[in-house]
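Q: Here's a chain of 153 amino acids. Please give me its 3D structure as tokens.
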Amino acid sequence: MSLQCDVVIDAGVTFNVSASLADLLKHAGRSEPLTAAGCWRMTLRVCDDFTIAELHKRFFADPTPTDVISFPDRESAVEGEKYLGDVVVSIETAAAQAVDAGHSLAREVAFLALHGLLHLCGHDDARRVEREQMLLRQTQILEAWERDQGRLL
């Protein structure tokens, strides 16, 4: 089965690896039990800190910017595909985290997009053990995709 990903880059945001992100998320979808069992679609939106702070405030009552937010929506369907939901990543927060982690912005955005996808698939990170499992799963998926691609993000 499959997972299709629409990548939306907000106006004013400079980021040019949207095709790679869509391929990565499609790859990840083949290994997650929920998305491997059907035809799914999702949207990844890359925005700025202001926009994600507005979403964070509106939906989570927290007016601060954050790195990634997931909005599950397993109820909608379009043209035979079930809609998994939306993932929103802040490019500015991702850039700061990439510097702290010592890797590329593309890799950080990919890591955050995977985190959001795992939330859409039902994973939770409320407890430390769950968070560690999610981070490990994100790393495994990203490294497997990079091996398949023969290049690093």
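Q: Can you summarize the key feature?
A: Helices lie at 18-29, 33-36, 49-60, 91-101, 105-120, 128-149.
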